[in-house]
Amino acid sequence: MKYFFILLTFLSSGYLCSQNKTPDYSTFKSAVRPPRNNVSPSNVLGSVYTVDGFDNFYLGIDNGEPYIATNPNDPLNNIVAFNSTSASNSDIYITRNGLDWSRVYPNYAGISGIGDPVMSFDSLGNMYFLEMFEQTPSGPWGAVVLKSTNKGTNWLNPVQAYSLNGGLCDKPWLTVDQSAGPYSNNIYIGWRYFGPGGGMKFVRSTDKGVTWSSPMTLAGDQGAYVSVGPNGSIPGGNLYYACSSGNSIILYKSTDGGVNFSNTGTSIAFTGPGVVCYGRYTMKNCIRTDIFPRMAADNSWTSTRGNLYIVYAANPAGADLADIFLVKSTNYGQTWSAPVRVNDDATTADQWMPAITVDKNTGRIFIFWFDSRNDPTGNLLTEMYGAVSTDGGTTFANTKISNANFNPNTMAIGGGNDAGYIGDYIGNAGIGKTSINAWMEDRINSSQTMQSFVAYNPDFAMTISSTDKSIGNNDSAFIYITVPAIKGIYNDKVKFTCTLDTLPTSGTISFSFVNGKDTITSFPDSVRLRIKTIGSISPSKIYSLQIYGAGSNGTPVHRRTLNLLVNSQRVTIQSNRNGICNFKVNGVQYNTTQQFIFQNGAVVNVQAISPQGSGGTRYVFKNWSDNGDTTHNVTISSSYTLTVNYKPRYLLVLSSEYGTTIGGGEFYDSAVAFNFGVYPRIVNSSGQYYRFRGWDGAGNGSYTSPDSTGLDTIRTIAISNPIVEIARWTPYTIGIHNISTEVPDKYQLYQNYPNPFNPATAINFDVIKSGIVKIKIYDILGKEIKVLLNNFVNPGKYKATFDGENFASGVYYYSININDFTSTKKMFLIK
After folding, report:
1. Residue 21 within any structural domain of the chain
2. pLDDT of 525 higher than 90
3. In the predicted model, is pLDDT for residue 692 greater than 50?
4. In a domain? residue 612
5. What span, in angstroms and rounded, lies between the C-alpha atoms of 724 and 210?
6. 719 and 636 part of one domain
7. Of 129, 185, 320, 453, which is least packed with CB atoms within 10 Å of its CB?
């Protein structure tokens, strides 16, 4: 279902959240989400995320709503589609080998699709893809069906399956009769219509999608789902149409290929999953889900043939908010079993949004859903789980399918006056003994993007003992290929094969399994692959050996790559300052780790560039990991990593207005102790004396003096980044003497002695608190003629000397100022 920002008449503008209010899906239009600008990069198709040997295949960034289908004639041919990340048509992916996925772009003949993709195959292997369209905002609404007769390589022009004016057509489902019965290859579509008369709609095609019937109306609210099953001995003789009606599921059945439907009287009632938020059933922090049925019929020729299954998420009694339940009918939908809980997690963790498929050959039931059981505290981090039943839905074996967890809230799109959206459904398809499953998550980042993944279940893990192997001429090498674990009911074999990307122009590279064992039937187990060279292999290079493991019908399938280094070696050359420091290999400069393939015996020149860096940081050569010189040659004889190590050096900027500095203006090794400083402590500058009082440091790890005694002219430090050190100086008057260490009880300026004087006199003063002492001399007119003292002093008794040699006889005044104390006295100079 797509995502509309439509303000529904039954919603208030506030946040609605409860467990009791039942949504009215008969009026609830779920469609059309706003376009997204997150475009899948083209180079991510087929990327594989492997954890403990199990693979999840990453396709790209899409917009949710996945559905997936498998070619009944080719288990490796799958199609999966998602809503588009932009205003264009759905994002469609095809694989023809079960491993490698590619984007396809059918010709829509000018029709602009709006999503809700669904697809199926007929018995001949023809591929059908359906997408909704909207010609204008007011309609008409409809759906087009595109067809491919060559596994998705090419597509025929789209055919309009239906088009209705006056209202929204929402969430179509499509299925094809793959049987050999009387309705073989009929195509059936069901959907919800919100126009005049409303209700559920249905159309069919009896000529492989060339023409379509007029829409038929059935009663119901939402969640149309169509399935084909046998009717006794008639293959494809029953066509089922399930939908919701309030909090119940109702079922229609046709025994004439969709010409007529009858209500089976089915009414499967349950409470929707989670809590009701903004009028919708929601999980986690108001992320929408639904109560719609997912349905599948058993077309196999096993003992469970004809069984019909409906799966749904519901809120069970008690504290648990959501579990997955299955009901089944063994009499073509007339009566139904009691619900069976599919998930084997009985805690209050949530399970929701299921998908179901039944394989037409084995009759296995595959169910797939969102599950937060492994976050028992927060019940938030989510993974994808699946279950398989081999006994017609009586028992299920649960398995985790995704190999990473994610938070649904980080990828949910806010809905304004609506619940958050992560897509309204997921998809799975049965492939014999396994299934393939498609979902959305955000493990790669958490920037509100839905990343598209597929994976098999049941499945096997696959590892190889080495990803690189060196081999010479007429040589042999061995690797182990291991299946260390399986998941789910994997009771199939695993067969291994391998292929070489290119053949040598001379000589031969052959492969064989030791003792002929290329298949594993019990787990864990492994096989041993022998690689042999015959003759002189040319060219000497790296060959890519693709190793495949697959089940009996080709699925599940996994691939591992062995880099076969024939008469050559892989050499990694790097620096310990990756991205910062440059180095050269054979004269070519690099800044990041490089991998090279060199022939055996090749002579390679490596060069460290030193020094490097700018500003306050420099990097200088320390050593090569092979203890070679700054520039030296290396003869290649094995694969290894060669690293050039640089050590950082940091600049000390030292600033001092007076004196002679030690250190500073240099780069120092990181964390290595060194000295800096200044001397002497008292400096005469143009007749004025200055005294060193300490350092002011800037930068992490710099030194700042704890006091102003000036006793720390020389310091030893170690730095790990650039720093600045600035020397503090204050004026200092020679002839000031501390005459007593006694701390006086008050400030005092004494009368000078002698007085009168010629030419010098002593001025005594007492200081009770540290501070800057200023003593100034004035003439009789009050003009300042000399600053006798302007210096920091500690508490004590002091004597300063005034020399009047250069002054005329007369009356003079002297004053003192320290902290809040001021005093002035008169003195006489007589010559």
Report:
1. no
2. yes
3. yes
4. yes
5. 82
6. no
7. 320
> Cβ atoms within 10 A of the Cβ of 457, count?
27
Angle at CA of residue 511, ends 509 and 513, nearest 5°: 165
Query: Which domain-ending residue is among 619, 648, 677?
Result: 648
d(CA 363, CA 78): 19
Q: Sorting pLDDT into bands at 50, 70 and 90, what band is 134?
A: confident
- In sequence order, the 6+-apart residues with CB closer than 8 A to the CB of 204 are 186, 187, 188, 189, 212, 213, 257, 258
- For residues 441 and 293, membership in a common domain is answered with yes
Q: Three-state secondary structure along 634-668?
A: EECCCCEEEEEEEEEEEEEEEECCCCEEECCCEEE
pLDDT of 346 above 90: no
**The token pair that represents 660 in the structure block:** 């002679």
**CATH number of domain containing 644:** 2.60.40
Three-state DSSP class for residue 211: coil
Between CA 694 and CA 118 the distance in angstroms is 79
Q: Are strands 640-655 and 568-575 parallel, antiparallel or unpaired?
A: parallel
Instruction: Provide the token pair at 393.
Output: 């839905």
Q: What is the pLDDT of residue 446?
A: 63
Distant-in-sequence, close-in-space partners of 583: CB < 8 Å, separation ≥ 6: 573, 575, 589, 590, 606, 607, 608, 609, 644
Q: Do 605 and 749 have their domain in common?
A: no
Q: How far apart are CA 340 and CA 793, in angstroms?
A: 92
Closest by CA position to 355, among listed 326, 335, 328: 326
The string over 787-805, giving b where at least 16 C-beta atoms fall within 10 Å of a residue's C-beta and e elsewhere, is ebbbbbbeebbbbbebebe
> Are residues 511 and 497 in contact, defined by beta-carbon separation less than 8 angstroms?
no
Amino acid at 402: S
- Tell me the residue range of the domain where 351 lies: 1-10+44-78+282-457
Number of Cβ atoms within 10 Å of the Cβ of 270: 17
Per DSSP, the three-state class of 411 is helix
Kindly indicate the confidence band of residue 112, based on its pLDDT and cuts at 50, 70 and 90: confident
Predicted TM-score of the model (pTM): 0.78
Q: How many domains does the chain have?
A: 6
pLDDT of residue 45: 59
Q: What is the DSSP string of 32-95?
A: -PPP---PPPGGGTTEEEEETTEEEEEEEEE-S--EEEEETTEEEEEEEEE--SSSSS-EEEEE
Distance of CA 207 to the CA centre of its chain: 46
Count how many Cα atoms sit within 13 Å of the Cα of residue 285 in the half-sphere of its side chain: 12
Angstrom CA distances, 600 to 570, 586, 605, 638, stand at: 10, 16, 15, 8
If you write DSSP's letter for every residue of 521-581 in order, what string do you get?
-SSSEEEEEEEEEEEEEES-SEEEEEEEEE-TTS-SEEEEEEEEEESEEEEEEEESSTTTS
- Judged on CB neighbours under 10 Å (0-12, 13-18, 19+), 25 is buried
618 residue type, one letter: R
Question: What end-to-end distance do the CA atoms of the chain give, in Å?
Answer: 112
pLDDT confidence of residue 327: 98
